[in-house]
Amino acid sequence: MKSSLIPKNIPYGRYVLSLISFISISLVLFLSYYPKTNTVEPEWLKVFPTLIATFNAISAGLLIGAYIQIRKKNIGVHKRLMLMAFSSSAMFMIVYVIYHSLKLAPTPYAGDWQWIYYLILITHIPLAAATVPLALFTLVKGLSGKIEKHRKIARITFPIWMYVSITGVLIYYMLYL
Ligand code: HEM
């Protein structure tokens, strides 16, 4: 493999990544739940659930692709697909925050699968928060060439991230389609 993109030892690296995770999660919670200043939802907000689900679906697809590639030992392609999955999940977070900071009330689930819906939602939320530090640490271990550590944490990150992306699409499907 070519030389690592980032140095092996970043001073206070784990604290910096923990702080970034903490700030990102707090920001999402704050912007989603602080009292709204708007009294009407803008018309263009209607497209956001579809955007949110699309970024989740793209992340899920890229994760599967990256996994297949690493099984075939294609490290370069694995790396690029993972960077794309990370960007797609970052876009999801931005769009999610804009949506929830303007949405006046949560959309209630009106279908016949109440307990399945809430089971998915209750597991999706904490695992989505856990994905933030897990993905950051996995990415940095990979990019800095600490491959043994990368593999160890990636085995936890991968299924959780996958679950969060797929349930993100399912939630959208159950609420809006
Ligand atoms: C958050 C992003 C990433 C995730 C979730 C991820 C996930 C994985 C997974 C699931 C494995 C297989 C682990 C195993 O069972 O052995 C793996 C291996 C690996 N990944 Fe990543 N990866 C990510 C980013 C990267 C990046 C950016 C690089 C940079 C080069 C990279 C390089 C590697 C390498 C070299 C291996 C080991 C290949 C081998 O077995 O020889 N990964 N990764």
Give the low-pLDDT segments.
none
Q: In one word, what is the shape? A: globular
**CATH class, anyone?**
Mainly Alpha
Residues in helices, as a percent range: over 70%
Strand content: under 5%
Find the structural class using helix and strand composition.
mainly alpha
- Count of individual domains: 1
Biggest pleated sheet: none
Can you give the mean pLDDT? Answer: 93
What CATH calls the topology is Four Helix Bundle (Hemerythrin (Met), subunit A)
CA distance, first residue to last residue: 45 Å
Order of helices and strands: HHHHH
Number of helices: 5
Structure summary, number of beta strands: 0
Q: What is the C-alpha radius of gyration, as a whole number of Å?
A: 18 Å
* CATH architecture designation: Up-down Bundle
- CATH homologous superfamily grouping: Cytochrome c oxidase, subunit III, four-helix bundle
* Small molecules in complex: protoporphyrin IX containing FE
Verbal overview:
- There is one protein chain.
- With 177 residues, the chain is an all-alpha fold.
- Helix 1 runs antiparallel to helix 4.
- The longest helix is centred in the last third of the chain and has 30 residues.
- It has one domain: Up-down Bundle (Four Helix Bundle (Hemerythrin (Met), subunit A)).
- It has five helices and no strands.
- The site of protoporphyrin IX containing FE has 20 residues, from helix 2, helix 3, helix 4 and helix 5.
